[in-house]
Helix-turn-helix domain-containing protein (Alteromonas gilva), 329 residues
Amino acid sequence: MNVTVLVCEQLSMFELACATELFALPRPEFNQWYRTKIVALKGDQFSGLCDTTFTCPVVNTLPATDLLVVPSFPVHITKVDTHIANEVLAHYRRGGRIISFCSGAFLLGALGILDNREAITHWRYASEFKQRFPAVSYCEDSLYVYDGQIGCSAGSAAAIDLGIEIIRQDFGYEYANAVARRLVLPAHRDGGQSQYIQKPLARPNNTLAKCIDWALTQLSPQLTVNQMAQKANMTRRTFDRHFIKQFNITAHQWLCERKLDVARQLLETTTLSIEQIALRAGFDNAITLRHNFRKYLSVSPTHYRQTFRKLPDTVMQSNTVIQKPGCAL
C-alpha cells in the first residue's frame, strides 16, 4: 500500500513528523506495511524552526499512491498553486484517499474536496475555516473525521489519532495497537462516537488495579460488579464512587466495554458464530451481545464483522468515524 506525504508551501515540523512516524517508519515486525514517499511539487527546500532546513525530492507528478497525506498548508493562502491543485484533484478524482492534519484541511477546502462533507481543523482556525468554506459541515470539538476516502484531523497531536484510525482500518486492531504502543500512546483516546479501536486502560490506584486485572481474567456472564467490589474489599457504593472518579464511567459500563473488546476481536479474527462469540466474550447470549453492540457502537455484530474482518487482498473500509473528546462511550 503506497503512501505519499505532500509538503506544500511551508514546513510544519510536528505534523510532518507525525506522518513520518505513522506511515514511513520501517516496521519489520509486520508482514505487510506501507511504502511511503515524502515529496514536494513546488520547491525542494523548506525552512524549519531554529534555523533548520528540510530538503525533500521535488516531483512534477504525484507518484501512484493509495493514500495522500497533507501534513499542513498555510492558512493565509487563499489561491492554491495551479500545479498543486491539479495534481491533488487528479488523485482525488481517481478515487484516491486523502487525509489532512491540522491546517492541511485548508488545502482540501480550497479545492472543494470537503464540500458537503464533515471536516475539522485546529480550533485556532475554526472561525476562518467556517467563513471561507460554508459548504463544509464543520464538526465542533472533534479530534478527527474520516469517511473512508477523505479525512481531517484537528490540531497537532490529533494527527496521530487519525493516523492510527487509518492503520486500524487498513490492517486491523493488532497493527494499530502495536503502533500506538511504540509511540507510547493509547491506541484510542477516551471519548467519541463509534469506538473502533481497542482502548488500553489507564492504570488506577493499586486496589482498583488488582481488581481490574482479576476481572479481565474472569469475563463471563456470571461476573458482576458486586463481585468486583468484593474483590476490591469495598462496599458496592464505595467501589462505584472510586471507579467513577478514576475512569469517569461506571463499573458496569466498563465491564460491558471490556466484553465488547473481546467480541470485536473475535469478530475480526475468527469465523465463530455470533452465539459462540457472545459466550466467549462473557455475555449471556447473542441477544445480549447484539443489544450492547447497538447501545455502545450503534452497529450490529454482523455489520461490524462485514466492515472490519480482514480478508485477503482487500482493504477494510468504514463508515464515517467522528472522534470527539469528552464524550463517554
Q: What stands out?
A: The first helix runs from residue 13 to 24.
